[in-house]
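Subject: sequence -> structure tokens, single chain

Hey, anyone have a minute? Need the predicted structure for the following. Not urgent.
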Amino acid sequence: MKDLNHLQKEAQNAIQFTKTQHELNEVKALYLGKKSALNQIMATMKDLSIEDRKALGQEINQFKVQIEEWVAGQRDKLVERAIQSQLQAEAIDVTLPGKAITQGKLHILTRTQQEIEDIFVGMGYRVVEGPEVELDLYNFEMLNLPVGHPAREMQDSFYINPETLLRTHTSPVQVRTLLENKNEPIKIICPGKVYRRDDDDATHSHQFSQIEGLVVGPHITMSDLKGTLSTLSKKLFGPNREIRFRPSFFPFTEPSVEVDVSCFKCGGKGCNLCKQTGWIEILGAGMVHPNVLRMAGYDSDHLRGFAFGMGIERITLLKYGIDDIRHFYQNDIRFLKQL
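Reply:
Had a minute. Here:
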């Protein structure tokens, strides 16, 4: 009995000084477990008389109940203590200034695209879009680029099967629009992503954005094309900009031209941006090839048209003085904040 009373006082002290649930479980096992001192006392019961064994059994049961009560009480205290500690650690000081919520903005390429679209809509154009996964028929053949044409080599890139590929320009949207309108006049621009084999460097990417335009109708001439692109360059780069045409070649236009704008950095005097020439190339254009009109069912003897195409990334690089096209795609918030 004396050993049991001593053990009870010892257990009470041990339970009171536990600081964690783990410690509490260990103390409980120490005094009630299979290898506890209590079990050693219980082992002596076989040597006692019936009366002493009965009395010791009652004391042992009371000891177990008491230990369980102390453990339960200490566990409640530890839980409460943990809750209070968590509340203090997660307390919010309502007197501190709140964190500002940053307002997002459109990506610079989206803003440039919308600016160009607004310019052309103001001149009476419609904005037309089409699929990025395109038929070879629309992407090449109906644009006067039959199978085996050498001009395909620079764009013949990402095929899904022999008849289907990721479009290499937005010109297929022009073909689809021609087929839908059946010899009617057209005045559209076609923005969207395009894909082609290219170097990934400061000025090139295998995926980029384009805006192409198409006008078809009676009495359309190169002067209409030049007036349209002159208006575009002045609205994009400033009212004092001039443009010039240089002869070029595209299978779907004849004649074809490269279009330059007078340098907006030096005013045409010559600088590092224009490579001392006073001019910067911005897009390609030309009169729609009669074969393209005929394949779409148009009367090329009475209807003519012009077409042009520009890279949105290139326009943005020039307009904002950005030195690397890869900045557009890296999602670097430091770069995006500057624009």
